[in-house]
Structures are given as C-alpha cells and as structure tokens.
Write a structure and sequence with these properties.
By secondary structure, the chain is α/β, with parallel strands linked by helices. It has helices spanning 27-32, 71-77, 96-103, 110-121, 127-137, 144-156, 183-192, 211-218, 225-235, 250-261, 266-279, 300-317, 338-349, 357-373, 382-391, 394-406, 434-443, 478-490, and strands at 4-9, 19-23, 39-44, 47-56, 66-69, 84-88, 169-173, 197-201, 237-241, 284-291, 320-327, 335-336, 417-422, 427-432, 453-456, 463-464, 469-475, 495-497. The chain has 3 domains: 4-88, Beta Barrel (Barwin-like endoglucanases), CATH 2.40.40; 169-406, Pyrimidine Nucleoside Phosphorylase, Chain A, domain 2, CATH 3.40.1030.10; 417-497, Pyrimidine nucleoside phosphorylase-like, C-terminal domain (Aldehyde Oxidoreductase, domain 3). Helices cover 41% and strands 19% of the residues. The strands form 5 sheets. The protein has a 6-stranded mixed barrel with strand order 1-5-2-4-3-6. A 4-stranded antiparallel sheet has the order 12-15-17-13. A hairpin with a 2-residue loop joins strand 3 (39-44) and strand 4.
C-alpha cells in the first residue's frame, strides 16, 4: 500500500518552482531517504508534479503526518483541503544528460533542446539543472544552428497566435538603457496608424523596470490569450505581460533563473525574443539596440555580432526583421522605475510642454522605422506619419482605448519617501553610468515597488553649481530609501562632473 501524507497549503510563494515541505521525522522521509533539496514526485488523483523538498525542523509549524505545498505546487496539483497525496522518487529527467553534454561543450540538436524545454515545463528539472543549462549556453557557447533549434523548441512548446493574412508589426529593445520606455508610445502610434501590434513583454530581469512593469502601473497586463485577442481585435494593439500567456512558456522559467545570476546570454536572448515574436504571430519585427559603454550592448562590434545572429535566426523562422542602432550613452527620459517611467510615457503621449524630448524623439524614430517596414509603406515617410499621429492626439486616444480594453486606465502614483542627491562640486555633466544608476533605482525598491526608483533632474551637457540637485531617490519605505542612499553616497562616477575651471 502506498504511503500518503495529508496536504496543506504553506502559503509560501516560490514563483514557478514547486516546493514541498516535510518534517524531518516524517516516516516517508526516513523510508524513502528524502533529504533537503531532494526532487520528489507527488501523485494526487490523476495529477502529479515533481517538487523540491525543504525540510522543517521537529516541533515546528508542520505536523509529522503532513506535507505542505508552495503556492505554485498547490495550484499545479489542483489540491484541496483534506487531500492526501503519495510521494516517491521520480525517474531521472531524460534531458539531464543533454544539459551535461552541453556543459562539456557538445552540440545539441532541436530534439535535445525540445527535451530540455519539455522537462522544464513539467518541472522535472531543478533550479540547479536550469542554472547549469543557462550557464552552459552563455558566453557564445551556442552556434547559429543551436540558436535556431532552441528558438524553435521554445516556440513550439506553447501556443501560437494566428492573425490570418494581416501584417503584424512588433518591436523589441535588447535593454540595458534605464528609462528607455518607448514601447507604449510606439504601440499607440502604430495601432493608431491601423496596423496590428499585439505586444507581449517580460517583466524586468536585471533592470529597474520592464515594459510590463511600467504598463501595469497604468492598466492590467496579466491577460490570457483570449483576452489579448479581444483587445487587439477591438483596438489593433495591446501591451500585456507575456508570462500570463502560453507563448514560448519555457522562457519565463529561464528568466527566473537568469535574474539571480544577473546576466543575459546573447544566444538565449535571441531565442527568447524571437520565439515570443514568432509565437505572437508577428510578421515584421524591429530590434532596437542601444550601444554604449555601460549599456547591455557595449560596442559597435558587439552590436554587429548580435545583429547578425538575430537576422539569421529570424530568417530561419520566416520573420522580416530590421535592426535599429541607437545611442546608449545615458538613460532616456527622467524616470527610472515603473511609475516614474509611466509618467514620462504619459507626458509624451499628452504632448506636455515638459515631456522628455529624448524619449519623444526615440519613440518617433522607432515608430517611423516600424511603419516603414510595412509592405504597403512609402519608405522614408514613416517618421512623418508617426509624428502626425502623436501631434494630433490620435496616439494618446489609442493608448487610452487600449488601456480601457485591457481593464481600465489609472494614473501612476508617487512614492512616499523622496530625497535629492546634490552635486558635490560645480562642473559640467559629462557622463551617466547606466548600470550604477539602475542599481540605485533597484536598491530603492524598483521594480517590485512600483513607485520606487530614480528621477533624473539633469542631462549630459548641463552645467551644475555646487549643491544643485542631480537626481531624486524615490522609495516606498524609509528602510529602502536609506539602503539606496547609502549605496549612492558610496559611489563615485554615477554621474560624472568635470571640474569647474576657476
């Protein structure tokens, strides 16, 4: 007879990693030889999952005849109060040997990547397995054929959206440039021009805000595929979180592991971006690559290499792709963090007199380039058309209509805690370190705390007096503000001022 334990919900959010908690004196732990971090198969009625074991000390909150499940494990099993489940050792995942082979430098084919993706989605691989896979693929360890194979495996593991014979435009920025929140503006312009633009975005991986984080400040983004389709059919465009859809679903698992590692693999970036674009039904895709010494793409050579890989994989998938190389020397706009970036987006859409000039110009450049990609376009007229939709208010109206269709618009809020960082001496602002200013915003609480971040008060080229405010720290709690302030004050060169000449 199979031994069972009563299931209880721990209420612990482990995101997408199923976790089970058992007391150290549990008879099943002893008889099966389960120890902390053991992978365990849990069977309940006609469902089963594989979870990672965390062991609870004797006399703690869990009874010896109970097993507690994390939020994701409880939901995956469809467990209910009073259920009993069986526990056993799972079969070793077939893809573990593929990960090991890749770690030792072997080449994988699409079947190998498909196996890894399948085992990832079925929770057969632990976070250690996934970290090994992500690391084994980093540092240009995938060749072109492998990148195509991984991209196809990721795309085919989920559902795809079909928009018939329509031209479907899309864009993606490779990132690394704080405040570069052009996408909501570009979507509004392109949809106002009459094209389909079903934009799905990730939450931030290593940045203070992703497009989904910023958009969520203004409207719901966790839509399913049916709701996404309704919004696009009604308004031509949407801005939703891709993690709530089954479009290239393994990507969210890889991102979850990449986030604490704090790096992005170039080839996995290509697979991530293009698998999602293909799954969303895009026909024409524009890739924005900001280039600068503290951006994600640091040199013209790196941009060229990334562009070649993106173009070759896009061609293999049947996507029409164009590259847009942009200035990555400094942050864009004033806000760095979800709510602060949302305020900049709205200022541009509303044609406010104090709207960030650089954010407006970049959004128009990208929207114009994207409009020029359309098969029926008069090439070279895209930016003029884009500006007409923005200046007339048509883009603002379209954005508000998209927000309403997604569940309703709301104005961004402001942080309760704010403090100014002032110039230590007079001089001209010559540089802003993208990575360190982004780190300050993250230490202040962004993107988890939506109103947290940094608000820049100066731009490169400005002349500063000693004591003049350079930027503001925004946080929701005094502790987070103090944490970010301590780091900001310990750093030199976040903002570089030339010495004033007396």
């Amino acid at each position: 007879m199979t031994e069972t334990l009563a299931l209880v919900s721990s209420g612990i959010d482990t995101y997408r990693q199923p976790v089970v908690y058992m007391q150290e004196d549990c008879h099943i732990c002893r008889s099966e030889g389960f120890a902390a971090q053991t992978r365990i198969r849990i069977d309940l009625k006609d469902r089963w999952i594989i979870a990672t074991l965390n062991v609870v000390g004797r006399g703690a909150w869990l009874a010896v005849d109970q097993a507690a499940l994390s939020v994701s494990a409880w939901a995956a099993l469809g467990a209910e109060i009073g259920d009993d489940a069986a526990f056993s050792h799972p079969e070793p995942p077939a893809s573990a040997s593929m990960i090991r082979a890749k770690a030792y430098g072997e080449r994988l084919d699409q079947a190998g990547f498909a196996g890894i993706v399948s085992d990832t989605l079925n929770s057969r691989l632990s976070d250690l397995d996934l970290a090994a896979f992500v690391t084994a693929c980093a540092g240009d360890r995938l060749n072109e054929a492998e990148t195509v194979a991984l991209t196809r495996a990721m795309k085919e593991a989920g559902q795809t959206l079909d928009w018939g014979q329509h031209t479907v435009l899309d864009k993606h920025c490779v990132g690394g440039l704080p405040g570069n929140r052009t996408t909501p503006i570009v979507v509004a312009i392109v949809a106002a021009a009459g094209y389909l633009f079903p934009k799905t975005s990730s939450r931030a991986i290593t940045s203070p805000a992703g497009t989904a984080d910023t958009m969520e400040v203004m409207a719901p983004v966790a839509l399913d595929a049916a709701a996404l389709r309704r919004v696009v059919e009604a308004e031509g465009g949407c801005l939703v979180w891709g993690g709530g859809l089954a479009l290239s679903p393994a990507d969210d698992h890889f991102i979850r592991v990449e986030r604490p590692l704090d790096f992005d693999s170039t080839d996995q970036l290509v697979a991530s971006v293009l698998s999602k674009k293909a799954a969303a039904g895009a026909t024409h895709v524009l890739i924005d690559m900001p280039v600068g010494p503290t951006a994600k793409v640091r040199s013209a050579g790196a941009a060229e290499a990334l562009g070649i890989r993106l173009s070759s994989v896009a061609k293999a998938l049947g996507l029409n792709l164009a590259l847009h190389i942009s200035d990555g020397m400094a942050p864009v706009g004033r806000g760095i963090g979800p709510a602060l970036e949302a305020m900049d987006v709205l200022a541009v859409l509303r044609r406010a007199p104090d709207a960030p000039v650089d954010l407006r110009a970049r959004a128009l450049d990208l929207a114009g380039h994207l409009l020029d990609l359309a098969p029926d376009a008069v090439v070279g007229q895209g930016r003029v058309r884009a500006q007409s939709f923005l200046d007339s208010g048509a883009a603002e109206a379209k954005f508000m209509a998209i927000c309403a269709a997604q569940g309703g618009f709301r104005e961004p809020g402001t942080a309760a805690q704010q403090i100014e960082i002032r110039a230590p001496h007079a001089g001209q602002l010559t540089a802003i370190d993208n990575r360190r200013i982004a780190r300050i915003a993250k230490l202040a609480g962004a993107p988890r705390q939506k109103s947290a971040g940094v608000r820049l008060l100066v731009r490169i080229g400005d002349h500063m007096d000693k004591g003049q405010p350079l930027y503001e720290l925004h946080a929701e709690t005094p502790g987070e503000l103090a944490y970010a302030l301590a780091y900001a004050e310990s750093q030199t060169g976040v903002l570089t001022l030339s010495e004033a000449v007396s």
